[in-house]
Design brief:
Blueprint: E1 6-11, H1 22-31, E2 34-39, H2 46-58, E3 62-66, H3 78-87, E4 93-102, H4 110-127, E5 131-136, H5 139-148, E6 156-158, H6 165-173, E7 176-180, H7 191-199, E8 205-207, H8 229-240, H9 244-259
Helix pairs in contact: 2-3, 8-9
């Protein structure tokens, strides 16, 4: 039986956690059957956006996103927007994000986060790119903003999904895919999330690591990396009582379609 082909749709490979062995990490991903990666540009300042694109340019089966994380809402001045405009038209940029709302860490700056999200959605409309959404403790406001800004026209992803089934189903109706991370493999306090994954159609699901965070067992507590996305796909297969091959094939096709990227044969 041939090895299932998977895509890690959310990897922070430009973070310093990977500075010592980035090439080895890419090799392990390839060996595990992870043949394409989406490297996320937002987070930890403007330079991460540039680094994400640089990495994508050097690797034929890596693509990148650019965006401004909600944690950066208070520091996102016009230099951020100028940088996004300078990067967003590159052929290796396949989405905007991650962007969104995080009220768990940022209750004091909700208005700034909302303004930042709206402006990025409008830029995505202009660029005709899907969006990658970060949402924590903000489901009501997120639904309202996405609807008001017509986000269904560009579509996108609810990344590292931990919300309610009702929220997931509502976002699917708004042309969004639901992406599950290593959290779904944890042993405690994830029953509802697992039930949501079980209930959602496989055609609306993606898999991601969100590395270097959220490593699945048996690597929990260690640095996460793209090779471990296989563990997430295996858990979804178990929950839905289907084969790993079926999960890999469908989630990979979902990613190809959303990001409009060609089928990949290997990471080089």
């Amino acid at each position: 039986m041939s090895q299932p082909i998977l895509i890690d749709t959310h990897a922070h490979l430009t973070f310093s956690d990977f500075d010592g062995d980035r090439e080895a990490v890419l090799t392990r991903a390839h060996e595990a059957g992870v043949h394409s990666l989406i490297v996320i540009g937002s987070g930890h300042g403007l330079e991460i956006n540039r680094k994400a694109l640089d990495l994508a340019e050097r690797q034929k089966n890596i693509w990148a996103t650019v965006g401004i994380h909600p944690h950066e809402a208070q520091e996102a001045d016009e230099t951020y927007w100028e940088a996004l405009h300078s990067l967003i038209s590159h052929e290796k940029i396949v989405a905007m994000g991650e962007m969104g709302l995080d009220y768990y860490y940022g209750k004091e700056n909700k208005p700034q986060q909302q303004t930042l999200l709206r402006r990025q959605i409008r830029m995505a409309h202009e660029s005709k790119l899907p969006i990658v959404i970060h949402c924590r403790d903000a489901e009501k406001d997120m639904q309202q903003i996405l609807k008001e800004e017509g986000a269904e026209k560009v579509g996108g992803i609810l990344h590292c999904f931990t919300g309610t089934r009702a929220f997931a189903e509502a976002m699917i109706e708004e042309n969004f895919l639901i992406s599950f991370s290593g959290i779904i493999t944890f042993d405690k306090k994830v029953h509802d999330l697992q039930e949501t994954a079980k209930a959602l159609p496989l055609e609306k699901i993606l898999v991601e690591t969100d590395c270097p965070y959220l490593a699945p067992p048996p690597f929990r507590g260690k640095r996460n990396e793209p090779a471990y996305v296989v563990k997430i796909a295996e858990k979804i297969a178990l929950l839905k009582n289907v084969s790993l091959e079926e999960v890999a094939q469908q989630t990979t096709q979902n990613a190809y379609k959303l990001f409009r990227i060609p089928s990949a044969s290997a990471i080089t």
